Amino acid sequence: MKKIAAHWQIIIALVTSVIVATLLKQMGDTPEVALILKICNLAGDLFMQALKMIIVPLVVSSIIAGLAGMAGFEGFKRMGLKTLGFYLLTTLSAVVLGLIIVNAMEPGLVDGKPNAELRQVFDNSAESISAADKGRFEEGQQDKASDWTTIFKRMLPSNIIKAGAEGQLLGLLVFSLIFGIAMTRFPLDQMAPLRNFFQGLNDVMIKITQWIMVCAPIGIFGMMVNTVYKNGASVFQELGPYFVTVLIALALHLFVVLPLILKVVGKINPLDHFRAMKTALLTAFSTASSSATLPVTMRCVQDNAGVSKTTASFTLPLGATVNMDGTALYECIAVIFVAQVMDFQMDLAAQMIVVISALLTSIGVAGVPSASMVAILIIMNNSNIPGANNAIYALFVVDRLLDMSRTAVNVFGDSCAAVVIAKSEGEQLYVKENEAF
Ligand code: ASP
After folding, report:
1. Can you give the pTM of this predicted structure?
2. CATH numbers and ranges of domains, the chain
3. Dist. CA 172–CA 304, nearest whole Å
4. Does residue 410 register a pLDDT over 80?
């Protein structure tokens, strides 16, 4: 029997999870429903944890093995500059796009006036939010960047083991880069054992990624049943225009801006690239975590798009940590939207500060679900938007679908950097016949 392709398995899991969650909702609050949800939750959590489990060894080994294979410091410097330039360009275009769309669509206004009903939702949201959600939000707030200088401090962790244990990817990344560069400063044969060790470790992590992805449909099904069950359709009504604005802006960035960059800068056929990335896109959408998706992104970019290990291991872990187009765009829309509802006037200069803040904070946002909510709160407080502390709760409760969508954009943005830079380094792309997933 022919095996169903991985991306189809995930699509089937997504569709059936919506059907099952809707049926469960209709069955009411019975013990059976609670048990089914619990089992689904377990399957989803195990899948997420399995992906997260391999991130630290995968990132460390792939960067070090990749750098050790690089032709000295010059090659590293060239690739570093190209990557950072690409990330800056795409994130900036995402924020500006968000700014244009939110000003054009004005989702916080009704007939040109601030939406009074929404304002009430914001005013009440701190009380109406469940204790569990509140706890989740406040817990998240504690360990996230409290201002932009934290981002720079995190780059050099004082304790590398602690950074790994806490999943601080940025610190791990910088350490691995320094370690890999230092290795290139020794004669090749002296470093051979270390290089072979990290190469071997990386190969093993790739094998484990493949095993985890065999379970992806079950994990994604479990995770999505809970998501759909919890976030029923009702929330979409009040915040409908806001949802539509965010989704339109994300779609424009994903389907117009990034493909244009692929075509013009990289001379790459965007359709080839979408085809190569489909499983990573679906995984990002389902998990709402670009960090958890990283192992899958790396496989798709190398095995399906044909990017070399060196380029992929340099661009992708860095991208998963610092390059978040969807998040930056979303932050900008969310902040301006709340200002519109609260009738808080923002002139061009004030909006430019939001643009710069979104750009900077998106670098520090962790690649985990709802991580950008804290960044949004910081920007709103910096801009003195009234009612920010209440509004953020309302946005948080309805965040999941938007989070899933912006995470897919984040991951796609990283993968575009990988292929454009690979092409500029003269690599042969999209000729591989052995697709990973
Ligand atoms: N969930 C996003 C990611 O992992 C981050 C965010 O925007 O909250 O890429």
Report:
1. 0.85
2. 6-424 (1.10.3860.10)
3. 27
4. yes
What's the CA gap between 431 and 336, in Å, rounded?
44
pLDDT per residue as tens digits for the range 333-354: 999 999 999 999 999 999 999 9
CB of 365 closer than 6 angstroms to any ligand 1 atom = yes
Which atom of ligand 1 is the closest one to the Cα of 369? 1
Q: CB atoms < 10 A from the CB of 193, how many?
A: 8
Distance (angstroms) between ligand 1 centre and the Cα of 290 equals: 6
How many angstroms does the Cα of residue 168 sit away from the middle of ligand 1? 14
Residue 203 in contact with residue 59, Cβ under 8 Å? no
**With contact defined as beta carbons under 8 Å apart, do 373 and 137 qualify?**
yes
Dihedral (CA of 409, 410, 415, 417) sign: positive
d(CA 43, CA 13): 13
* 148 CA to centre of own chain: 19
Q: Which residue has the higher pLDDT, 247 or 370?
A: 247
pLDDT category at 145 given cuts 50, 70, 90 is: very low
The residue type at 235: V
3-48: per-residue pLDDT in tens?
788 788 888 998 999 899 999 989 988 999 999 999 999 999 999 8
How much is the pLDDT for 387? 85
Q: What are phi and psi of 416, to 5 degrees?
A: -65, -40
Which sign does the torsion angle of CA 435, 169, 73, 187 carry? Answer: negative
Q: Provide φ and ψ at 306, rounded to 5°.
A: 85, 20
Encoded amino acid at 28, one letter: G
Tokens of 51: 């992906």
pLDDT > 70: percent of the chain: 89
Which three-class secondary structure state does DSSP give residue 110?
A: strand
DSSP-derived 3-state class of residue 108: coil
HSE (CB half, 13 Å, CA atoms) of 114?
A: 16
Give the Cβ contact number of residue 30 at 10 Å.
10
Element housing 114 (H / E): strand 113-114
Atom of ligand 1 nearest to the CA of 406: 7
* Ligand 1 neighbourhood includes 407 CB (under 6 angstroms): yes
- How far apart, in whole angstroms, are the C-alpha atoms of residue 319 and residue 328? 13
Condensed to tens digits (0 to 9), the pLDDT of residues 179-207 reads: 988 888 888 889 889 989 998 998 898 88
Q: How far apart are CA 406 and CA 411, in angstroms?
A: 9
